[in-house]
Design a protein that fits this description.
The complex is a heterodimer of chains A (about 180) and B (about 180). By secondary structure, chain A is mainly α. Chain A has 2 domains: about 1-95, RNA polymerase sigma factor, region 2, helix turn helix motif (Rna Polymerase Sigma Factor, Chain: A, Orthogonal Bundle); about 115-180, Arc Repressor Mutant, subunit A (Orthogonal Bundle), CATH 1.10.10. Helix content of chain A is about 80%, strand content about 0%. Chain A contains 9 helices and no strands. In chain A, α6 (about 120-130) packs across α9 (about 160-180) and α7 packs across α9. The longest helix of chain A has 27 residues, at about 15-40. Chain A is globular and about 55 Å long. The relative contact order of chain A is 0.10. Chain B has about 180 residues and is mainly alpha-helical. In chain B, about 50% of the residues lie in helices and about 0% in strands. Chain B has 7 helices and 2 strands. Chain B has a two-stranded antiparallel sheet. In chain B, β1 (about 1-5) and β2 (about 10) form a beta hairpin. The termini of chain B are far apart. The chains are: A mainly alpha (about 180), B mainly alpha (about 180). At the A-B interface, α2, α3, α6, α7 and α9 of A face α2 of B.
């Protein structure tokens, strides 16, 4: 795998940009896809947001200062794009953010790209009831197995705060699964 | 059961023998974040077949598309020159044909009923505040916009009933001195 610094340098130079960008897309598409999918839930919406995320990365690569890892910076863009997408969707439909989240989970039952059973559907319901930050930390740690340090860079929150959010999320999900 | 000589508490047989193993297991679970037995390890989402192969060309074609949208400034100017030339020809033709007609129509020729009908049927899309900012208030008296003449006594009566504190009116007292 190509070193991150080299890739960033190549992305910033016009003559090597196209090739380097292809490498970047191939390297990160799956990880970013799953990150976005766990926020917006539906495959088609995820596809839209993923493509917009990469276009934003392409257009803003000159603004990447290298203060964080490229990987964390891209996660941050993907997170913002996903949350903005949900906000715009709820506004367009004239419903609250929470109503939209509940509807998205309800739609999973008829989604051909969701093969979850009853317990996995319940898990999604539990996740939909969590505040955004807790849900993000939980999915990034539990399903994407990211390190707290990387999540901290991506979400701009301290490691201590993230650990607290994660444990709180686990407790709430467990309680939800027990009671429902 | 093992008895402690100095107190009356008991512990299960072999408790301390396997304590280290249990502790290490627990630490391992905590580290991997997988200690939660109730929560499923897989969340059930799938993707269409071959999706990840198709997404790269889709993204690359879009970035290429965005780049080609940049049009050099020079060609813009030639477009404007062309448009200006066409517009000039139209204006010339229009003014020549207008001169040939004996009477020109002015704003005064519009029947006031038609103007009123226009305002009745078309919303201006402006709030009363926006209208107030464009109409010079110095040149308009209340009687110009009201159908009935407003009696001074009615104004005083209104103020008496609706204004609790005279300060709210922000009157400039110097006018009355």
């Amino acid at each position: 795998m190509i070193a991150e610094e080299t890739l960033v340098q190549e992305l910033k130079q016009e003559e090597s940009r196209a090739k380097a960008f292809e490498v970047l897309v191939n390297t990160y598409k799956e990880r970013l896809y799953w990150h976005i999918r766990r926020i917006v839930l539906n495959h088609d919406d995820t596809d839209d947001v993923l493509q917009n995320t990469f276009i934003k990365i392409y257009k803003n690569i000159d603004n990447f200062k290298g203060e964080s890892k490229l990987y964390s910076w891209m996660y941050r863009i993907a997170t913002n794009e996903s949350l903005t997408f949900l906000k715009q969707k709820s506004k367009k439909m004239g419903i609250s953010d929470q109503e939209l989240k509940d509807r998205l989970v309800e739609n999973l039952e008829a989604d051909v790209y969701f093969e979850g059973d009853e317990i996995q559907l319940k898990l999604q319901k539990a996740l939909a009831s969590l505040p955004d930050k807790q849900k993000l930390v939980f999915t990034m740690k539990y399903f994407q197995e990211m390190k707290y340090e990387d999540i901290s860079e991506a979400l701009g929150t301290s490691v201590g705060g993230l650990k607290a959010s994660y444990h709180l999320a686990v407790k709430k999900i467990e309680t939800y699964l027990k009671e429902n | 059961m093992k008895k402690n000589k100095r107190n009356s508490f008991n512990i299960p047989e072999g408790y301390f023998e396997n304590f280290n193993d249990r502790l290490m297991d627990r630490i391992k679970e905590e580290e991997t974040g997988k200690a939660e037995s109730l929560i499923p390890k897989n969340d059930g989402f799938t993707v269409p077949d071959g999706y990840f192969n198709k997404v790269t060309p889709a993204v690359l074609s879009k970035t290429l598309e965005k780049e080609t949208k940049v049009v050099p400034l020079k060609s813009n100017w030639s477009f404007y020159y062309g448009a200006a030339a066409v517009a000039a020809i139209f204006i010339l033709i229009f003014s020549l044909t207008r001169k040939s007609s004996s009477e020109s129509i002015s704003f005064d020729d519009l029947a006031s009923a038609e103007i009123e009908a226009y305002f009745d049927n078309n919303t201006l899309g402006m709030t009363s505040y926006e209208i107030a900012t464009i109409i010079p208030i110095e040149d308009v008296s209340l009687d110009d916009v009201l159908n009935d003449v407003l009696e001074e006594s009615s104004i005083l009566e209104y103020l008496d009933e609706n204004v609790e504190d005279i300060e709210d009116l922000n009157l400039d007292y110097s006018d009355y001195e």
